[in-house]
Specification:
With about 210 residues, the protein is mostly helical. The protein folds into two domains: about 1-75, Glutaredoxin (3-Layer(aba) Sandwich), CATH 3.40.30; about 85-195, Up-down Bundle (Glutathione S-transferase Yfyf (Class Pi), Chain A, domain 2). About 55% of the residues lie in helices and about 5% in strands. The protein contains eight helices and four strands, in the order E-H-E-H-E-E-H-H-H-H-H-H. It has helices at about 10-20, 35-40, 65-75, 85-115, 120-145, 155-170, 185-190, 195-200; strands at about 1-5, 25-30, 50-55, 60. A four-stranded mixed beta sheet has the order 2-1-3-4, with helices on one face. A hairpin with a 5-residue loop joins strand 3 (about 50-55) and strand 4 (about 60). Helix 1 packs across helix 6 (about 155-170), helix 4 runs antiparallel to helix 5 and helix 4 (about 85-115) packs parallel to helix 6. The chain starts with a strand and ends in an 8-residue tail after the last helix.
Length: about 210
């Protein structure tokens, strides 16, 4: 399989880390949405990453759809998102908080780093920052109840997505979100990054 995109993208990284957790090998095609738009549009007409080219030649787009395929392939006993019931809903709530936060963080990074300074909209940037903080704070509170993991007492996609989110912030928005404000989430990242699936997909590898 071929995974398209850079680990600097939290969406690419959560797919890459999940594949490593599942023991699924892949070839990397390190393309950036900023500099390699034409090549990315050749596999995803919307020009977004990640995309995953299967051995059959079929191409999957969007991290949620790719992860759904990976969970199906892993089987219900190993899936990072349980197939049904209250356990599935608990994990998906954690995923939604992490991905909702990082979507706002990506928009914030574009606002602060890609726009000319005189075109930055401070009120909009503050709203994006507030929405990101709200998601992070909620995850931090969940972990603050004595949990090692966000859901089910084990590593799930909620943790994978949360670590991808937190490490994206540290790599792209350093100084805007302090570890002291989210100590439990920061500690989750430290624990996770001792695992090869996370260490080998860290966003700093593509910086």
């Amino acid at each position: 399989m071929i995974l398209i995109g850079r680990y600097r993208s939290p969406f690419v990284r959560r797919v890459a880390a999940s594949m490593k957790i599942y023991g699924l090998p892949y070839e990397r095609r390190v393309l950036s949405t900023i500099t390699d738009g034409e090549a990315i549009r050749a596999v995803n007409p919307i020009g977004r990453v990640p995309a995953l080219v299967l051995d059959s030649g079929e191409t999957l787009i969007d991290s949620a759809a790719i992860l759904d395929y990976l969970d199906e392939r892993a089987g219900p006993a190993r899936a990072l998102v349980p197939p049904q019931g209250a356990e599935r809903r608990e994990v998906l709530k954690g995923v939604a908080l992490a991905i909702g936060a990082v979507e706002k963080a990506v928009a914030l990074a574009y606002e602060l780093q890609r726009r000319p300074e005189h075109l930055i909209f401070p009120e909009w940037a503050e709203k994006l920052k507030g929405q990101t903080r709200a998601g992070l704070s909620t995850l931090d509170r969940i972990l603050g109840t004595g949990r090692e993991w966000i859901a089910l007492g084990r590593l799930t996609q909620a943790d994978v997505s949360a670590v991808a989110t937190w490490d994206f912030l540290g790599n792209m928005l350093a100084g805007h979100f302090a570890a002291a404000d989210f100590p439990n989430l920061a500690a989750l990242s430290v624990r996770a990054n001792r695992m090869s699936a996370f260490a080998e997909t860290h966003p700093s590898l593509d910086s």
